[in-house]
Design brief:
Length: 239
């Protein structure tokens, strides 16, 4: 028996999930798609033998959709995830879960009220073999207590629709999740600093950004994000 999946958002990430569902995983079938660019969704749907819907809410409500994947722009995630919870359908949401803490809290509250775990967020690094090996080394104290960790996140470029806040919600969010998991610790404070702009920064961005995090055990973490450099760099350190 196959699980029928509906996909909201058919950009690069959405297409990657569709490829895995169709060609890598067993027991899943994409039956419905939608995107702000409906023509793109229709083109992809034709190759799959699937159909398109005019809106994400229609994908979620469709009787033949058993589970939902949300890969649309971050600002739409709350609406679709809440709708999937209300429909009692499992939903995989690409990061971020939502773009504000209040929106994330509303989603958590809705899932708790539903009484069933339905939501998964697309944090994939903790499942990666390399990261899991690093986690084992840190947990077992093979090389001692963590004093410094260096994370590098590189993108060849960012589009004109990439905004300053997305450096946190769409990019640094990976390091926020990974370092918390890696250190088995919680954050107690966060500070964002905007130093002097780099000459390579896009005019519409505050670039670079420095994010200073502190954990309950007093471990400080430093994340520097240069969002519009030709080779986007990010570093994290803990002492």
């Amino acid at each position: 028996m196959s699980i029928n999946v509906g996909v909201i958002g058919t950009g690069n990430i959405g297409q990657d999930h569709i490829r895995r569902l169709t060609h890598t995983l067993a027991g899943a079938r994409v039956v419905a798609l939608t995107d702000i660019d409906l023509a793109l969704a229709q083109k992809i749907a034709e190759n799959l033998g699937a159909r398109t819907e005019n809106a994400g809410q229609n994908v979620i409500a469709a009787k033949d959709v058993d589970a939902v994947i949300v890969t649309s722009i971050g600002s739409t995630h709350e609406e679709y995830v809440l709708a999937a919870i209300a429909a009692r359908k499992p939903v995989f949401c690409e990061k971020p879960l939502a773009t504000t803490a209040a929106a994330c809290k509303r989603i958590l509250d809705a899932e708790v009220a539903c009484g069933k775990r339905l939501v998964q967020v697309g944090f994939m690094r903790r499942y990666d073999a390399g990261y899991r090996l690093l986690k084992e080394v840190v947990t077992q104290g093979v090389i001692g207590a963590p004093l410094m960790a260096h994370c590098a996140h590189r993108n060849p470029s960012v589009g004109d629709n990439y905004t300053t806040d997305m450096a946190i919600t769409d990019t640094v969010i990976h390091e926020i999740d990974t370092m918390r998991w890696l250190l088995d610790d919680e954050y107690v404070s966060a500070q964002v600093l905007y130093p002097k702009r780099t000459s390579k920064a896009s005019m519409h961005l505050a670039d670079p950004q420095i994010v200073l995090l502190e954990t309950t055990t007093g471990v400080p973490g430093l994340t520097s994000k240069c969002s519009s450099m030709p080779s986007t760099a990010m570093t994290s350190s803990v002492k």
